[in-house]
Amino acid sequence: MTETVKAKEAFAMFVGIFQSLTGILSITVAYLIYYNPDFFPVRTMFNLLPEHVAFYMMLLIVVGSFAIISGLLIIHEWSIRT
Amino acid sequence: MGEEGKKRELGMFYAIITGLGSTLGIEFFVLLDYATKLAGPAVVLSLIISGLINLLIMFNYAELSSSISRIGAEYTFTKAAFGGFICFFSGYLRWLSSIFTTTLSAMGLARIVCFFFPYINPSLFAVVVIALFTALSVKGGRIVDLATVISFIIAFVVLSVAGCFRGLNLDNFQPFMPNGFYPGVLAGAMYTFSMFVGMRAIVTKSPIIKEPGKVIPRAVWFSTIICIAIYCSVAFIAVGTIPPTATSTEPLLVHVGYVIMGTAGQLLIIVAWAAAAIMSLATSMSVQTSILSALSRDGYLPRIIFSPGKGSVTNYIAQMVGSIIAMFFAATGLITFVGYAAGFASLIVFALVNLSLIKLRKTQPNLERPFKTPFYPYTPIFGIVFAFMLMMFVESSAAVLVLEFILISLMIYHLKMMGYQRLRFAVGGINIGISGFIILILFLSGAGVLQLTLYSKEHTALLILGTIFAATFFIAGLLNLTKSKKETAETTGRLWME
Predict the structure, then answer these.
(1) Which of A4, A46, B11, B398 is the most exposed place for a label (fewest CB within 10 A)?
(2) Cβ–Cβ of B404/A62 closer than 8 Å?
């Protein structure tokens, strides 16, 4: 395996993991927006109106799920033993 | 022998016990509290309405399960009638409703435990209970069902009879419908619908029930009538003892038990409550695992989830997927919300099963049907209409959540059904699209066209985060569109072979 391929593989793995993590983060933020806990009141922090909460949650959950799928796909595609 | 080689060993008695064991669960203890707030003393009427609608739908289930006597219930019926997405969709929603029931059971157990140990965090306790049940892989059984049903009936009968002589105040029934029939009673019916959903357990046992054409409809009929009678009598006593307007931090039935029979009554309810929670938790967890495995077996979900045998590693993967989601909802501590979500998901599945009945009567008129639902086609049509009618009373946030899960189901289905390379290209394209969209939003916000009501510090943080997100999505898109290591290896292999 050449150094270039190795570096490309490592980079792809990093992007895959990072994207999956952003997906998890998005879904967690969606949860925090709904729950608005005292230790991290996201809704209050970003001045979100209660009638917009469902929309933001939907957006974050859909994008977050997609990011997880896409990240896992990259990890799967670039971690195959050749 | 059943169609799947299983011995038909369940008679009428155990079919009824199965129905009662799955229905007389934690939902009644947990949901009755808020249902009395919605409907007032007319909660009794709400329970009768939801029970009768459930009975109507269960007759349709009985016809389908006696003619298609296979494991999988709703999933199998929709598979026979429609196949494809509808089949996946019904399985997925059934799985979702089991997850909500798991959450509800864990929250119910947490509520009663934390009532006595107030220093324990109920949400944390519920999460730990789900994790523990997942690790131990606890499952119910026939003897456990029988013991629980008998203890429930004894507890409820004792409470109802004692309540008639002590604590009952008929003045509490005035006004009978403080919120009116609409929305009060109907909203109460929607909310209490989950209390009867467990009745479908009879149908899931159809492959091992003797003479399913006779036994299933009769068992459904008897179980529903017994459940309506028990629920209504306890609700009547509860409202008659504690007026719905009363405010108390104590769970309603525990309070009722104490007022009627003192500490002994309180203890009776607590034991029944804890038993119900543990049994519901075990049943719902095993149901969600089997549904996920079936979806995976049929190729709708990744093969890794399919469970080839009890106790296998993949069996735990199927169990863990549902448990993680259940823990997530348990952490919110929102019992009312989860109750609504469970009812909403079940109602959609019920509507689909009714539709399957109509479709199968048309497309397969010669299918052997040992039991035919009475008053066809009005029964399934009424079932669909009532299901949709009750859906109108779901709390909007719970409906939005279930609809979001439906969107995810669409995404999963299309991703799975696409060819692998097409899927990679599609994901790559969507990634670049999302990245472009984020950049556009950031640009509009920076130019002042889009007015975000944020403080400057938060606005800067959002800009930095947005840029990182956009860059990640863009690079991920390119990686999905370019030739991967796997593809390169395949091409090299092919050239070498040539």
Answers:
(1) A4
(2) yes
Residue B3 confidence (pLDDT) above 60? no
On the question of pLDDT at B481 being above 70, the answer is yes
Amino acid at B351: A
Is the Cβ of B480 closer than 8 Å to some Cβ of chain A?
A: yes
User: What pLDDT does B47 receive?
Assistant: 92
> Across residues B249-262, what is the average pLDDT?
83
Mutation target vs B (from A72, A77, A79; most B CBs, 10 A cutoff): A77
B392-401, pLDDT tens digit by residue?
877 787 888 8
What's the mean pLDDT in A18-30? 89
Of A9, A15, A61, Cβ closest to residue B485? A9
How many domains are contained in chain B? Answer: 2
Residue B3: inside a domain: no
Query: At which of B415, B437, B459 does a domain end?
Result: B415
**Number of C-beta neighbours around residue B210 at 10 A:** 15
Q: Residue B209: what are its φ and ψ, rounded to 5°? A: -95, 135
Q: Looking at the 3D structure of chain A, how many domains does it have?
A: 1
Contacts of B462 in chain A (CB under 8 A): 46
pLDDT in tens, B412-460: 787 777 667 777 788 888 888 888 888 888 888 777 776 666 666 677 7
Q: What is the pTM of this model?
A: 0.71
What counts of helices (H) and strands (E) characterise chain A?
3, 0
B189 and B228 inside one domain: yes
DSSP 8-state code for residue B58: H
Nearest to B427 among A54, A57, A70 (CB): A70
Total Cβ atoms within 10 A of residue B84: 12
Mean pLDDT over the full length of chain A: 81
3 state DSSP class of B435: helix
My answer on whether B21 and B92 are in the same domain is: yes
Q: Contact B279/B140 with Cβ under 8 angstroms?
A: yes
**Residue B443: inside a domain, yes or no?**
yes
Of the residues A42, A46, A47, A75, the best mutation for testing chain B's interface (the one with the most B CB atoms within 10 Å of its CB) is A46
Which of A34, A45, A80 has its CB closest to that of B458? A45
**pLDDT tier at A82, thresholds 50, 70, 90:** very low
Domain extent at residue A19: 3-78
* B397 and B440 part of one domain: no
Cβ neighbour number for residue B332 with a 10 Å cutoff: 17
3-state secondary structure of A44: helix
Name every residue whose Cβ is closer than 8 Å to that of residue B95 and which is 6 or more positions away in sequence: B288, B291, B292, B295, B322
The answer on B426 and B411 residing in a single domain is no
Range of the domain at B208: 12-415
Q: Which residues pair with B10 in a beta bridge?
A: B209
What's the average model confidence in pLDDT over B86-91? 87
Which ipTM score applies to this complex? Answer: 0.86
Is B35 or A4 the better-scoring residue by pLDDT? B35
Say what percent of chain B tops pLDDT 70: 87
- Among B397, B415, B433, the domain boundary falls at B415
